[in-house]
Amino acid sequence: MTEPVAVLLLAGGEGRRMGGRDKGLLPWCGQPLYRHVLARLAPQAGWLAISANRHLDDYAASGHAVFADEAAWQGMGPLAGVATLADKLPDGIDYVQLVPCDAPLLPDDLVARQLAILQAEPCADACCPSTINGPQPVCALLRRGALVRLPDYLAGGGRSLRGFLALLECRVADFDDTRAFSNLNDPQSLARLGE
Questions:
Q1: Is 194 annotated as a binding residue?
Q2: Residue 2, φ and ψ in degrees, nearest 5
Q3: Is 92 annotated as a binding residue?
Q4: How far apart are CA 110 and CA 40, in angstroms?
Q5: 41 is in an annotated binding site
Q6: What is the mean pLDDT of the chain?
């Protein structure tokens, strides 16, 4: 294990902007999108898991653990996957790095830069990358202990990652490369980045 960090790839959405297609499985440069994300993050993490609610066998073909949202959290957005994972983390994992299934160009130092900030600031619960385009909450790094606050947030009607991070002591990691955080979440962006 390179770091005490679990990567949770978020692939549980309904793909509304893609006409209902499963974004993580869309082909890009010869492979499903999610495979590009895994290739970027695998060297940065000690353990990888995938949050998916459809095509579980396709995601399981990656060789990584796949979890569908538990019944208590279904329909609650990407945080449902985080809440589902919370009690399944292996021993020795102290942090959870979130990544979307449709961002194939994420930085090679995404985990390292955020982890350095959290390790230097023991009172911080989370770190969120930011570019000139603003914060990227779907790529946040969470301290494992912060996940205990998630059930109450969801039970109170909270759904957004941004809203959850606002409850935490969250630090910011600045990144210059805005393209690295490109989300291919509609046909136009998929076509553009393919060029």
A1: no
A2: -80, -35
A3: no
A4: 9
A5: no
A6: 90
